[in-house]
Structures are given as C-alpha cells and as structure tokens.
C-alpha cells in the first residue's frame, strides 16, 4: 500500500503513481450521481481529505447531482507538472494535479503576486481542495448559461473588480473560477473584491435553485 | 515576482483580453483558437500554468485534442 511521505517541511509529499478507480473514497461525492467516474493516484487518506471540503456544501452537491461531472481524477496527468488542473468543457472531465510542486502552496494571500487562489492554501490537501473548487467553477459558470457568462465578462472588463490572483487577472472565466474558489476558502473575499463576491452569489443563486 | 514572470503575466493578460474579445464577438473559430494558443505558447512556454485559460474555450470537436497535442510537443521556457 502506498503511503504519503512526510517531507522536510512537515507536509505531505504525495507519491507519483498512475490513477486507479477509487469510487469508495469519494464521500460525500457519489460516483454515478455527482461524477461519472473517479480515479486517484493518491493514497486513501489524502483522497478522502480532499473531498472533506464538500461535506459542508450541500448546495454544491445538489448542483452536481443535477449537473454531474464526467471523469474526475486526482493525478499528475496534466500537460506539464506545474499545471494545477484541467476542465474539459465538452466532457466535463476534471483533472486536479495531485503531483503539484511543493512551492505552489503556502503563499501569503496577496493577490497582486499570488499565482492562484490554491497557492494560499496552508497544506497540500487544502491546495487540492481549492483547485478542485476552481475546476468545478468552470462547470458552474457553464451551467449558469449565456446571460451570466456575459455579465461576468462585462464585470471583468469594467475595471470594477480586484482579481484575487494573477490567474484571475488573465481573462473573465479564470476570474470567475478563482473568485469562486476564494468565495469558499477566503473569508476576506468580500472585503477585497465585493463585486466579485456579489457576482459569485448571484450565479450560485441562479444555479442552486 | 521576477521581471520575467511579470512580463509573461502581462502577455497572458493581453492574450486573455483578445481571447475574450474574439469569443464575445462570436469570432472564436478553430483557426482563431489555434492562433491564440500558439501565440501564448510562443510568449510564455507550453508549461506555463496560466495556459489553463484556454481549456474553457476548447468548444469545437477536435479542439481539445489539438490543444493538448500542441502543448505536449511545444518546448517549455522553464529555466533550470
């Protein structure tokens, strides 16, 4: 059985291995209900720990039951090792990079220099949780439909926003997904970017009803 | 942030604006998509995590496969 290693800094360093089906480790996500399939390259404990983030998010679980993801995967199967995740719009497949470099989390939440919201995670599990939320954000925005999509783009272009990370500054969809992750994990979002906070709330009201 | 990182970020923001403009105006066909992905790769290297922004725009049949193949065959700009 693979075990997580404890790195020099006291954090879990995930071993690199091929993902295998692990439908029994996904609670509260259910394979066949919220996702079509689930594969993990991580050991059991950190895999289950990543999904803990969804335990107190019943509205998002309900959303995923109505708009199931395709194949969800925690693995290193991204184009390059420093890519943090992927969302395929057509298949609704998500890959969260479970082999992300150790220097991609533990950063100060300082938006002008923060690469991604997941970079401000305190540990590797939280970094994967944040990246999972970011990728689910793509699905949320897609399900919201064309009007919210246009509103996000208009807000982003208006200059009345304070993007939470460098990735959020790049373009409107990443702005939404990064703000969505910050909405879940950063209590300071409303103080930092009130219009972004309101944007997420408005879209969640729409897709959660 | 280093000067190079800042420069790469500014290039990606510029390409991101063009991606948004092209999509919003209804002109993001496969040729435009390929042109923007190639420009981004040439500007920052295929291994830059900011290229994830193209994933949400890979909407046509074959776009995703083309993009992932293009990323894999393109050189990284990462300096060891």
Notes on the structure:
The complex is a heterodimer of chains A (209) and B (80). Chain A has helices at residues 44-51, 58-66, 124-144, 146-158, 166-170, 172-185, 189-192, 194-208; strands at 5-6, 12-13, 20-21, 35-40, 69-75, 85-88, 93-97. Chain A is an alpha/beta fold and 209 residues long. In chain A, the strands form two sheets. In chain A, strands 3-4-5-7-6 form a five-stranded mixed beta sheet, with helices on one face. In chain A, helix 3 crosses helix 6 and helix 3 crosses helix 8 (194-208). The longest helix of chain A has 21 residues, at 124-144. Chain A starts with a strand and ends with a helix. Mean pLDDT of chain A is 92; it is low at 1-15. Chain B has 80 residues and is mainly alpha-helical. Chain B has one domain (3-72). Chain B is built from three helices and no strands. Chain B has helices spanning 3-24, 30-44, 63-73. In chain B, helix 1 (3-24) runs antiparallel to helix 2 (30-44) and helix 2 (30-44) runs parallel beside helix 3 (63-73). The mean pLDDT of chain B is 91. At the A-B interface, strand 6, helix 3, helix 4, helix 5 and helix 6 of A face helix 1 and helix 3 of B.
Could you name the key traits of this structure?
heterodimer, A: 209 residues, alpha/beta, five-stranded mixed beta sheet, two-stranded antiparallel ribbon, 8 helices, globular, B: 80 residues, mainly alpha
Q: Residue-averaged pLDDT of chain B, rounded?
A: 91
Question: Which descriptor suits the 3D outline of chain B?
Answer: globular
| Tally of helical runs of chain A | 8
How does the helix and strand content of chain B classify structurally?
mainly alpha
Count of alpha/pi helices of chain B: 3
Largest contact between protein chains? A-B, 30 and 28 residues
- Strand pairing plus helix content of chain A: what structural class? alpha/beta
Mean pLDDT over the residues of chain A? 92
Secondary-structure blueprint of this entry?
The complex is a heterodimer of chains A (209) and B (80).
Chain A lengths: L4 E2 L5 E2 L6 E2 L13 E6 L3 H8 L6 H9 L2 E7 L9 E4 L4 E5 L26 H21 L1 H13 L7 H5 L1 H14 L3 H4 L1 H15 L1
Chain B lengths: L2 H22 L5 H15 L18 H11 L7
Helix pairs in contact in B: 1-2, 2-3
